[in-house]
Protein 1
Amino acid sequence: MSNVALEVKDLVKSFSLDGATIHAVDNVSFQVKSGEFVALVGPSGSGKTTMLSILAALLAPTSGQVLIDGQDLAQMDEKRRVKLRREKIGFTFQSNNLIPFLTAQENVEFMLRLNGQANKAGRMRSAEILARLGLNDRLHNLPAQLSGGQQQRVAIARALIHNPAVVLADEPTASLDTERAFQVVETFARLVHENNRAGIMVTHDLRMCQYVDRVLQMQDGKLVRVYETKDEIMGLAMETVKH
Ligand code: ADP
Ligand code: MG
């Protein structure tokens, strides 16, 4: 039985800017099951980051619902929301927000520390996940000693280490070279599938869609198209290569 890990119902987020109203997210509904890796694509300004911030419980929607593991974010008090975010959600945003005075491995373990799981098993798991992302010789380096791409991979490891029900990544390959980007997204996909997590990745690089199970396309805040079959998804992933 595959259960719904994340459900979005009639979600709306509007901003007022200089007297005008911007519908950053305009009545969007979808579900993501455990074990499913989904890409969220669309042009700049289409509402992808706003959507991800709402799913991460970092931003409150104007209306509509978000359910994580069946729990409605809006029905919780802030204390429970913080606990849910810490335990059930892993996220990495465009700015990776690594803690500058902690090493790569310590940054990853920080998520375990927050959940009271910093022990020997956690230490081995953090080393393993960093190695799978190609950072086995960088465990003890500080963020400033790492390239942008390496920092981004540390942030991805941190989003996955506590095995959250829902993993959210905003442009995780933005500062990686092509070969590394493919490797990281492939590893990301494998970790989501192996551990039966629900993954959502925002990307502007359609080639990365070859590793996902479904593609949600946004435009002007709306969900305009869903690519579901392997053929549709591969067609989209190859489109960019042709041009
Ligand atoms: P994307 O990530 O797809 O590029 P965003 O979610 O960042 O898009 O933005 C969607 C729209 O909402 C854009 O028009 C953007 O300018 C607007 N927007 C995002 N955040 C804010 C905010 N805090 N205040 C006003 N407008 C915002
Ligand atoms: Mg964005």
Protein 2
Amino acid sequence: MPKNDLVLVEIKDRVALLTLNRPEAMNALNSALMLELMDTLEELDRDDSLGCFVLTGSAKAFAAGADIKEMAEASSIDMLLKDHIGPFDRITRIGKPIIAAVSGWCLGGGNELAMSCDMILAAEGAKFGQPEINLGVMPGAGGTQRLTRAVGKAIAMEMVLNNRTLSAAEALQYGLVNKVVPDERYMEDALALAAEIAARAPLALRMGKQAVNRALETHLADGIAEERHAFYFLFSSEDQKEGMRAFSEKRKPDWKGK
Ligand code: CAA
């Protein structure tokens, strides 16, 4: 496992908790942190003993965005050659479900990272925004696209053009997050949700996640065709036989991930 301690990993049963660990910089996402995060996620994704991930920051900040100091003097060519934002894409290829457990600031690239996860559970004091306009730029890691799909054009425009920050309650109202819980409970609740998901049929989880994400990227007919193939494909798994037999036999299924 890559280790600069920019991302801390704790494993409990089938859940891996990944904690962004740059508290001195509000978890600003510099290149080293992003590479460590993506390398770690990819390694954990290959581990069959795990079923679900929780990604979190600190109580003060999930992440305050890309590291402004690291890129302040970069030219366009520097940004292109280093593919500064490239590592953000790697999270979208992770097969297992990822829950973002967000407390405090969730800004810019931090919000874009949270939106690249599959669910967001927010502490009631969490604050969501895309403040890039204050820096003379705009979101560059999916902010204009994923945010607009999540909250709609009206709110996305206010956030991107005028630094509107959403409270956790507003984020829930506009569909950006799944759930808001009291500040002192957000980690416990995120881990409990992850444990519940991690106990489910692994192949169906993987394919269900992929299919829902495809809905944001493809035309309806193509998405439905892909969904149908995935549904039929799952009938070659032992877990489909086990799940359907367990239903008829009125017992709990014993998933094998095969
Ligand atoms: N990059 C680099 N350093 C950052 C940072 C960032 N995004 N956010 C915070 N920090 C650093 C601060 O510079 C400060 O460091 P020093 O102690 O060395 O000065 C430390 O973290 C603590 O921050 P503050 O003193 O500012 O803490 P605060 O409580 O007063 O304010 C905050 C917190 C509102 C989050 C404020 O830090 C802030 O506005 N941060 C910047 C947010 C931002 O603009 N994010 C967008 C980045 S660009 C981007 O993300 C592009 C993209 O789409 C990929």
Protein 3
Amino acid sequence: MRTVTHWIGGKPFGDASSPSGTWGPVTDPATGEVTTRVALAGAEEAGAAVAAAKAAYATWRTSPLTRRIAILFRYRALLDARRDDIAALITAEQGKVHADALAEVGRGLEIVELACGLGMALKGDTSTEVSSRVDVASIRQPLGVVVGVSPFNFPAMISMWMFPMAIACGNTFIHKPSSKAPSASILLAELAAEAGVPDGVLNILHGDEVAVNALLDHPDVAAVSFVGSTPVARHVYGRASASGKRVQALGGAKNHMLVLPDADLDAAADAAVAAAYGSAGQRCMAISVVVAVGAAGDALVSRITERAAKIKIGPGSDPASEMGPLVTRAHRDEVADYVAGAAAQGADVVLDGRGFTVEGLENGHWMGMSLLDKVRTDSDAYRNEIFGPVLCVVRAETYEEAVEIVNGCPYGNASAIFTRDGAAARRFQLEVETGMVGVNVPMPVPAGYHSFGGWKDSAFGDHRMYGSEAVHFYTRGKVITSLWPDPAETVTGVPASR
Ligand code: NAD
């Protein structure tokens, strides 16, 4: 069995022992076997991580921007060279297929590239002669020790949304990854050290809520970036902001795809299948509800059924697999329960994935594609985030009714519309209450130089992830007003005109 321990001050912490004495199991989702034990931090390890980050901040905050950027360029090259290794660790612990894991690393790299160009974003503004000989400069400075807490479903990408921008801005960072998939974060930290990130600037603390709460309560932590489920996002936002920390907390999702009858239904079905079942539905940008308007309904359901049945499910390490297992047995069983209860709550169960298994790997966390049609909006399958390969279809008579359904959902992460009608698409963009919108694009994950974040119960706090919003989140503004008198004109040093 492998052991994964914390990374503090530029090296493994605890010499393969867990100072708190607590370990958690990491399972290979394809076999169901525990392959690794991960150290779970208590207050002592959290304190050590904060102390290391605080000590490093003293010099990192004033290190030249050119140096920080040179390190990030080296880091980008090392990550690029090790894409396969990072992806393999993701597949082994999270379960997603290798191609999907590689795509995850690619999306994370986008943010490292963004951080490489941070010089432009960090330059301030100056106004000269706002009054006689008075200049005003606005600058942005780092916050200090920043914490990032991330979920299991993107073990590399979500931490790469956070720490490259945070450290490029001059902060030091403690990443608390999900203990279900902890190994990729250690490789990311090792490569950062190889690229020249000084000891203590990037630290990895493994653990569960004990570790998170110790960081949220620590007086030397200035800010917290969180991504995970809505109940935990709400908790993190409340607890950290109560002690005066800056917080951004992204939560869960229930993303709707509205399909109008004039849409290209083949393209819409392809998109729905890829966005609902890709990564076994364990994506915050997954489409979990299709709202089919009028005549689109029956035609779409038959096309989705035909396509979904062809998806090849198997271990993520097998290049022939298009969809892998779910992360844990418990999560797989929760997902299956929603399908089990759907018919009694009024849905037509068109595809039922509960019986699926892979020969020879019967202990893996397998679940086939499930498709629930005519789902009621008061049913459990509609109201809750299922986070598995279960697609709900809700029927609506008109565009107006469909938008009302989307906007009635408490989650507001992303939505999409499929149509050939530009006016309807434009109306949807303006009327829908989600933070990200796709037009004939099912998963509108914004490019790195824009920003990522939802509305309503999908995000707490004012700042979105990456893009220029990350610069605002990871720095604070300062405005300097200066007066330099001309000694030739005054005796006292204060110009006579003032
Ligand atoms: P989770 O909320 O269970 O865990 C997220 C992180 O919080 C983990 O590091 C975990 O160790 C920690 N944690 C768990 N319980 C805690 C508690 N009570 N107190 C403090 N910390 C706690 O989420 P998950 O199951 O790992 O990930 C799936 C969820 O993440 C889904 O809801 C998904 O929609 C969401 N997600 C959202 C986005 C987004 O950008 N909005 C992106 C990816 C995933």
Protein 4
Amino acid sequence: MNTILVTGGAGYIGSHACKALKAAGYAPVTYDNLVTGWQDAVKFGPFEHGDLQDRARLDMVFQKHKPIAVMHFAALSLVGESMQDPGLYWRNNVGGSLTLIEAAVAAGCLNFVFSSTCATYGDQDNVVLDENSAQYPINAYGASKRAIEDILRDFEVAHGLHHVIFRYFNVAGADPEGEVGEFHRPETHLVPLMLDALDGKRDALTIFGTDYDTPDGTCIRDYVHVCDLVDAHVLGLHWLRDDKGSRVFNLGTGTGFSVQEVLDQSHSVTNRAVPCTEGPRRPGDCTKLVSGSQRAKDELGWTPNRSTMKQMITDAWRWHQTGHYDR
Ligand code: UFG
């Protein structure tokens, strides 16, 4: 059996990855401490409760399941929190990842797929960011992810750890079959907050800034459907298994949507207007973050075919109405 150890498999992206891995003939084993994940989301293989910083537990799990690769999603990922408590992010994300990487090497598991972020690029407004763009993170979250990228490169040189690094742009949408979806507590992301406001779970969505240098004054982001994103991970795994070497790939679509455009599209999908108020800019937000993702298309053969805004909102809305883990 081709077992893959999926850290963070109880979270939003990790749970979708487990579903995709199972569909591709792999056996995903979820390793998660359930601090931000949901046990209900572990539906596609065994669950091992544990923390990234618990080396003894990791060693036991590697020994028990003998994975051929690691997909490492587990991380804290709130930009604001990372600025208030950077130690938490360096300890959990960097310290935890280092412990995991050392355990993988010790177990002889030398294929590693890592979820990094466009936050490693920092504030480079109005530039299309490709994999060769400079990395100047402006928050501890982005800095922690960039540090893990560095660790992977060093471990490749010293120990032959082959890795694929994916730098995500804005992930949205949900499993179209409704088995898993997005649910964070607290929620900070635009699409689920917007859907909460639509069905009365919160009063109104605050638009963070309407005075940006964009056509409608609101921030522009590059949104990618979670199912397309995890498909790229399966392709990344095949890339490693084919011995193609370590590589970095951006995952976005190359098309930007402003906050106002996302709101307009949700109106057309749901036939309801999102109640909104206009607020000040959110500290740390860049004007425009758009990915150059040609490399993933050219080299991995990745085709993001669900990443239209309409499809992402349709799938997220279906999940929102039926699938929350806290029901
Ligand atoms: N936004 C609002 N109102 C809200 C929430 C968000 O107007 O209540 C806006 C934000 O200002 C931003 C856009 O919607 O312009 C998207 O915001 P999200 O919080 O959904 O996503 P971010 O772009 O802030 O964050 C994403 C990832 C992070 C990553 C970051 C890098 O979710 O993990 O990109 O910039 F670090």
